[in-house]
Structure formats: C-alpha cells, structure tokens
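Protein Record: Sequence and Backbone Structure Tokens
======================================================
Scope: a single protein chain, as residues and as a discrete description of its fold.
Tokens: labelled as protein backbone structure tokens, with as many entries as the chain has residues.
Position: the record begins directly beneath this header, with no further notes in between.
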Amino acid sequence: IIMSSSQAWLDGSYKNVWNGKVNSISTVKGENLIIDAFDDDDIEKTRIMKNGVFKETDEKIFDLTGKRNYEIHMFDPSNIEDESFGVVSEDQRIITWKGKYWMYSMEKIDEAEAKTLKAAAENAKDPADAP
C-alpha cells in the first residue's frame, strides 16, 4: 500500500448509482464522506476515504475502468472491516467502488441536482414512512 497526499477525487455532491438506480447522495469534503441513503429514514452514514495505490482491482472494475489498482480505500470509522476500494475516472467525476459483496458508482453532480434527487426520493416514500 502506497499512501498519497494529493486527493484523487473532487469535493462536492455525488449521486450513488447501484444496479442502475440512484439510491443515495454522498457529500465529500476532503477525506470525509457522508452518505444520505434514500431508504434509511434519513440516517446519514459517515465514511473516511484515503488516497493511495492499493490492491489489484477486481476483474469487473478493470473491465469498466482499465485501472489495475484501486486508488481509494473507504471505510466506516466505527467498523474498520466495513470497507470498499475505488478507482477515480480521468476527469475525476466518477468513482467506481467495490465492496465485499457489491459494486456501485458515485457520479459528481451539482447542488441543484442533489436537492432535486433528495426531494424526489422524499416524495416517493410511503406517507406512512414520512417523519
């Protein structure tokens, strides 16, 4: 593992896409990532991202990105074993992640789109689930 001091990703809002669907919004500032999951009753999850050269990429990640090694290690500070590894696109606007059992992408969006996606997810909830 080689750690790097320069940040490979862009700060700001990202839509998290899993199985072709946006399921949450992430806000990134430096090494800190906050995930606002649409189906988790407004529970925000905090993660830490570290830059570097990590283990070899999974075959699917390599096929999608052409990258041979992961560039980011993301983990839950309260549960270090809850970790993912990611690669950043050349334009820094997409991070492709691989966890233990899943794969998803974070795609950079502006604040207006983040608000629109959050509002649409809130409106799609069953009224019985509303806060």
Q: What stands out?
A: The radius of gyration is 15 Å. The longest helix spans residues 111-124. The chain has a mean pLDDT of 88. The beta strands are 2-3, 12-18, 21-29, 32-37, 44-53, 72-76, 79-88, 94-98, 103-109.
